[in-house]
Amino acid sequence: MLKGIKMAEKLNSSTYLLGMYDNYGLVKETKKEYDSAFYYFNKSLSMKKKIRDKVVYYLRAYHPTQPIAEGILTPEKSKRKNSGSDYAILNKGDTIYGKRYRSVFNRYNIIRFRTDTGKIKLPLKDVKEIYSKNKTSWVYLSPCDNRWEEYTVYLKGNVSYLWNGGPHNTYCSDMLVINNEIYPIDKHHFSDKVWGILSKCPEFEEKYKAYYNEHKDKKLFWRTRKDVKKWMEMIRFYNANCG
Amino acid sequence: MIYFYQGKYDLSRKYFFNAINVYEEIELFEPAANLYSLYGYSLRERY
User: What is the DSSP string of B15-46?
Assistant: First the structure.
């Protein structure tokens, strides 16, 4: 190890030296030579600080055959001017901070972020959650047209209420998420399936049975603000009293 | 590294030093230094 360290020191190769000092510190720690261990750990840390070693990596690493993003990503929230409070959580668990922006050539299946290390394009299918303009959105494969869509989260809990921003007369514009499964609100109020799940809670069933019986056969061609308000009230009640 | 994890330490050592020789021949001293360091570190894992 020392031979390697000496060589790297001679070449002034800071990238390799960082790891070498760290590893050598660990060797010293194993030997219970704590003073030496501290010396090498400290040396490695001060070098890291000096070159501002951020954990910068390519997303390419997670998809060896198919790069899912272009550019370099910073997993830490940056304090530079380009970084905003927006973020995207990927399906792999990483979070990308930056400022979301929309291009003139906007494509529905791609979201764009401006980070302090450059611009980045992310395919929607690889993103789990987006936070932008004080709103949280979740990404799901739309059951209607089989494409990835962003749904804004209006209520979050055991039952979550999402809306994709489209007109309320289209199927799949509103959705419920229960135990990570999606249930589109179709041309009925709550579907029998959804009602079946929610009515397992006796308090909920008692309170809204009359409403369900009244509306179960009615078809909806345009959801009014009143409908949405009622659903949100029901979901809020369920989240507060059931589950 | 694969031989190392298989417990075939002699073969592992052989290929480590082969790699180091190749790096030194083509004058890539940084990776060579890294390999020396890694070899030393792998001894720590062994004992």
Answer: HHHHHHHHHHHTT-HHHHHHHHHHHHHHHHHH
